[in-house]
Design goal:
Immunoglobulin-like; six-stranded antiparallel sheet; 5 helices; Ig-like_fold; GH; Ig_E-set
């Protein structure tokens, strides 16, 4: 049994203490243990200190570690950092701890730097927070070479930690370089308060081969494209990989026993047996690590074919770019065309997004907007130079642009040039370092007072710090902040503000990036819940005894609210045109009054503030993109409607006169099945005029051929004007490209 000395007093002395080296600051003895000492609070300055007994130098303890360590009798001075601390000390074990009473410093980032790391002494390799709720605990799995390293904060030398022990120990501010004794993969843990660190050496499985497989690759899902193994045995690369838009995964030994997938593109961390990685077409240098599971698709060229070529190959949104189109490639009706236009938009939703924004082009108009020039000396090649993507598409500063979407056309818009799959052509852009809002996606926000609105933003990589700010009219105020995070969220409560400016700021390495978004808030009333009046059905319900009103009914289960917006209210949202909701939540309905008899009104349903649609039961629609290209000889008086920002809308008209059939009852009888001679007829191709009226005049010709039945290919409203009709959009509305609904009946 030990018989340790019992000291009358133990105190702290040194340049870091209030009394300096002249006198000890006494600690208090634990009433239950004569060898445990504590001090509830002491203010230290940057300097050195030691523990000593009985206020003299006969017995003293020191160490090289702070704020925690084990003191040795006669040991070195303890380096101390300024601050307010509580102190504990055991004079038998020598263990001590200086607990900082001030809130711990939260660093934007903590990393490792040194000859043992991949980036050497030039730049820190960032660690990740072990838990977002613990901003002082850091972790990283990485490969280290035998060499030296230190921990440091914020990628600079103002705050750094070193140590003398490996693989575990306690780091001290400004301490010695840590000596990594063996090259290997390690999981590193570090606490920036206590300085405690641990390097856990891993023994990962070594794979013979790793490859890329999927619909985006040349081998499809059948054969992996092999990657090249790195010197560490676990990093893999694939250079100049030409990928098409599709999906991909990493897998081992060209089979499915071990594979990895992910949801992020172009970079992320894969999971075993994870989902397919979405891939945008392009030429890439691909890297993957089978230990850390980190992957990256680094674009070297934004296209995978020769249909469209960019110069520079991967432009940013802020530099000039020349777009060259080869009309002899892809699905093209523009070979040997005399004039070519580019109809295009910018993709803001992400590197694999397909939705166009800020579209430039007037389809069917020969007005110079998007007009291309022939490339001298090269047949079927056309080009256009943009001053920059941001300027050409009028893109707000700070908003990242990921892709361009485009199709090509002749001056009249009757011939097109598209991808090899007869679709839109997409080319990649270099978005650079960015931060952007991911929610809400709309600029108009509908809600009731007291309802919460989620604001979400993401950075292009893990940000040292990322913060959200809100301006309700009195300047920006911070509302949320995180360290070492790629995303940030905040729940905003709707009140009385009708407009809002939101801003997100992220620190990406040494660069600060910012994005702002303006929101218009429309405070709506709660839905009026009312049963659907008897006798009403989905669509337009006309009132035979009152031609000045119509009741509109929309089936919209699981939707929150619907407005009716149209010519009758000057396309303005108002409480008077918010639709009633049935008690079961399935239907919305509204009676529209003060309509002018026989006047055509164009209208839409605006659902949940984000969906704008015409009435699916309407027998006539207005198409702002295509109606103007229908000859007046076929459809003489289309209703005026040019709201391209809203899209296709429905048309209602009260007081319509019933059609007077020439033969109210069917004359003759249907032929027997065995006697049928059916002619399948596409109005567009059968007659140059594509007119119902002219078709009626040719019935005798068909009869002379022996035809006794006609099967019309789809005639309901379809996308565009020229189609086989199988891309139908409004099933109860005859397409106006063939004539009026009464022409069809004639």
């Amino acid at each position: 049994a030990q018989n340790p000395a019992v000291y009358a007093t133990v105190g702290l002395i040194g340049s870091a203490t209030p009394a300096g080296w002249d006198a000890s600051t006494a600690l208090e003895k634990d009433a239950n243990d004569p060898h445990r000492w504590f001090l509830p609070t002491i203010t230290l300055t940057a300097g050195e200190l030691k523990f000593r007994a009985n206020n003299n130098w006969d017995v003293s303890w020191g160490s090289s570690n702070f704020p925690a360590g084990t003191g040795l009798q006669g040991g070195p001075n303890i380096p101390a950092t300024s601050g307010e601390y509580s102190v504990t000390f055991n004079d038998v074990t020598g263990e001590y701890f200086f607990k900082n009473l001030a809130p711990p410093t939260v660093y934007a980032s903590v990393g490792i730097i040194g000859s043992a790391t991949a980036k050497g002494w030039d730049e820190s390799t960032p660690l990740k927070l072990a838990n977002t709720n613990e901003p002082n605990n850091w972790v990283l799995t990485t490969y280290l070479q035998a060499g030296e390293l230190k921990f440091r904060a914020n990628n600079n030398w103002d705050v750094n930690w070193g140590g003398t022990d490996f693989p575990a120990g306690t780091g001290t501010r400004g301490g010695f370089n840590l000596q990594v004794t063996e090259s290997s993969y390690y999981t590193i843990q570090f606490n920036d308060i206590t300085g405690a660190y641990n390097f856990n050496k891993l023994n990962p499985v070594a794979y013979e081969s790793v490859g890329l497989v999927g619909s985006a690759t040349a081998g499809g899902w059948d054969n992996s494209t092999p990657m090249v193994k790195g010197a560490d045995g676990h990093s893999w690369t694939l250079e100049n990989a030409q990928l098409t838009s599709g999906e991909a995964k990493f897998r081992v030994n060209n089979n499915w026993e071990v594979n990895w997938g992910g949801t992020d593109f172009p970079a992320g961390v894969a999971t075993p047996d994870g989902p397919n990685i979405p891939v945008a077409g392009g030429t890439y240098t691909i890297s993957f690590n089978d230990v850390t599971r980190e992957y990256q698709f680094e674009v070297t060229s934004g296209t995978t074919n020769n249909i469209v070529v960019l110069s520079p190959a991967l432009p940013t949104a802020d530099e000039p770019v020349t777009i060259t189109y080869d009309a002899a490639q892809g699905v093209s009706g523009l070979r040997d065309a005399s004039k070519v236009y580019m109809h295009s938009g910018v993709v803001l939703s992400g590197p694999v997004g397909t939705a166009w924004n800020n579209v430039v082009g007037n389809w069917g108009q020969d007005n110079g907007l998007g007009e291309m020039s022939p490339v001298p000396g090269e047949s079927n090649k056309w080009q256009i130079t943009l001053p920059s993507v941001r300027e050409y598409y009028n893109l707000t500063g700070g908003v990242p642009a990921f892709r361009l979407g485009m199709v090509f056309r002749n001056a009249a818009g009757t011939q097109t040039g598209k991808s090899e799959k007869d679709g839109d052509i997409f080319v990649q852009l270099n978005p650079g370092d960015f931060v952007r809002f991911t929610a809400p996606t709309a600029a108009e926000i509908f809600g009731v007072s007291g309802q919460t609105l989620q604001l979400s933003a993401e950075a292009s990589g893990v940000a040292g710090s990322i913060s959200l700010e809100i301006n309700e009219g009195n300047g920006y105020q911070p509302v949320a902040q995180l360290s070492n995070s790629k995303t940030i969220n905040y729940q905003y409560t709707l009140g009385t503000a009708t407009s809002l400016q939101v801003r997100v700021i992220a620190q990406l390495n040494e660069k600060t990036v910012t994005s702002e978004k303006g929101l218009t808030i429309i405070l709506r009333k709660p839905n009026t819940v009312a049963a659907l009046p008897a006798g009403l059905r989905s669509g337009i319900n006309y009132h035979p005894t009152d031609p000045n009103k119509a009741t509109l009914v929309l089936l919209a289960p699981k939707k929150e609210f619907v407005y009716v917006v149209g010519d009758f209210n000057n396309w303005q949202i108002s409480d008077a045109y918010q639709m009633n909701q049935t008690p079961d939540g399935e239907y919305f309905w509204l009676e529209v009054n003060q309509l002018q008899t026989q006047k055509e009104y164009v209208y839409q349903y605006w659902v949940d503030g984000v969906i704008k649609i015409g009435d699916p039961y309407a027998d006539k629609v207005a198409d702002p993109f295509n109606d103007s290209n229908i000859p007046t000889s076929v459809y003489p008086t289309p209703v005026a409607y040019n709201r391209t920002q809203n899209g296709i809308a429905a048309v209602l008209q009260t007081g319509q006169q019933p059609y007077q059939w020439k033969f109210p009852k069917v004359a003759g009888k249907r032929p027997q099945k065995e006697d049928l001679v059916i002619y399948e007829l596409l109005v567009r191709d059968f007659l140059g005029s594509h007119s119902y009226r002219d078709l009626a005049d040719t019935l005798t010709y068909l009869k002379r051929l022996g035809v006794n039945a006609i099967e019309l290919m789809p005639i309901m409203e379809f996308e565009g004007n020229e189609s086989w009709g199988y891309n139908s959009t409004y099933l109860f509305a005859p397409d106006k490209y063939y004539g009026t609904k009464n022409d069809l009946k004639a």
